[in-house]
Amino acid sequence: MLCRDQVEAWIRAFAGAIADQKEYLTQLDTAIGDADHGTNLDRGFRKVLERLDDWRQGGIGKLLQEVGMTLIATVGGASGPLYGTFFVRAAAAAGSGESLIDAEAAEMFSQGVDGVAQRGRAELGDKTMVDVLVPARDAWMAATKEGTSLAEAVERAVGVAAEARDATGPMLARRGRASYLGERSRGHIDPGAASAHLMLQSLMLTIEREDS
Amino acid sequence: MNRFLNDPDTFVKESLEGLAAAHGKVLRVHQDPLYVHRVDSPVSGKVGILSGGGSGHEPLHAGFVGRGMLDAACPGEIFTSPTPDQIVEAAKAIDGGNGILFIVKNYSGDIMNFEMAADLVRAEGLRVQTVVVDDDVAVKDSTYTQGRRGTGTTVAIEKICGSAAEAGYDLPNIGALGRRVNLHGRSIGLALSSCSPPATGRPMFALSEKEVEFGIGIHGEPGVERVSAVSSDEMVSRLVESLLADQDYTRKSHAWDDGSESRVEVEETDQAIGEGDRVLALVSGMGATPLAELYIVYRALAEHCVGAGIRIERNLVGNLVTSLDMRGVLITLVKLDEEMLGLWDAPVRTAALQWG
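Output (structure tokens, whole complex):
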């Protein structure tokens, strides 16, 4: 079960992780992009944090929708539409309720991932956040089908996400600004893959905190 | 190095406020959401021409707002595409009743934000067409990448489409014209130094005195290859040779189809530039290149074109599409036909370009 307060705590935790890792994300983006991934996401999430209290009324869907729209309007670049679309699509899947059962939570995440892949027209192996989100989603779904707890399913997804993030290092970029570097894009972790891992890790830490 | 910077967070805003103060007869700056528009917009009955992209490329795009060019420009943060709300509000503000043309450079962020904006604008009943600029020949293996970047040809498209709109062209014809100019344009750039974004104040890559970056983009990103520095004429030779050696180029893009009301994949091919062609030649500094050096580049470019049997009908030398304080150059050739030449020559009144 994932309740609305946990979702809000997840958003706060992700915003905090972005702020903490801002320099690291920007450093990754300096190597193969344009040195602004951390700065741009942090600008968007600071705006989200300012407004979170205004979204108290309404269920999980309303909260996620507002997060997505705020990111779309404040982040810009590629990460604005991509993370924005993730939360807007997750919002549609979550609906107006105050809580989600485990299978619904997995479905919420999965719909968000599909939204990202469609918006960016990225495929597996392109060296993007999709390379983290898709295998992590698959691990989460598989664990849920086995009947594990939500905490266990998300933990497995985070483990897969960390490996998948590191696996973007040797890849040749085929989407986004890194793709212009050709062979020179190899040897650097994709910044979007790193922030996508942080998103999942933030969810895991939020759920664990509740359990303990 | 010191710079004229009060606060990185207000850098873009303050620069635009200065632009508006200096060119109050030409343009206005709208805040929240941020966009620049013609002082007399909306122009009734005229197709609205809207462009935008990350800041740091000045005078592109806001410097090209005015009669004969853009109705609105949407500036993003430094090297970051604008957001859909900026584009939507700008489009509504310049709508003269005959539709809006979006001119978008081919970067994943720009494509996504402009697509989202186009969907929102269409939902409000406005007609929108998009021209995607992808003219940078440094990007070779485009089958598996984002494709070519949009650089110098953007200036030609903004001018030619802007003047076509003044002349009363309708939206489908302006869209087709803009795509034709894009297919006729090719660019390549070279950097002698990196640039330092206001937020970090640090160069984005390090280059020794003995090296140059060949095939750069316009966001301070490294080029496709780092090569040894040679004489200016040799560097220009290498640039021009790679422009002219570039063969027919085919790209796939996603264009809006009014009939099916959805995006469809379209394939377009342009032809190499060669003997007998008449061209517009642009030599743009990357922001920190002295004008005197740009003319040394133009001198070599002009000699090359004579040698290759290519006639430069028109030219522009100066800062057109820049990358903050980068030292470097961007060379663009656009094949011209009579229609494009006439529209290029038509009057223009913007902050950066005025003639006729």
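Residues 2-211 of chain A form a domain with the Serine Threonine Protein Phosphatase 5, Tetratricopeptide repeat fold (CATH 1.25.40.340).
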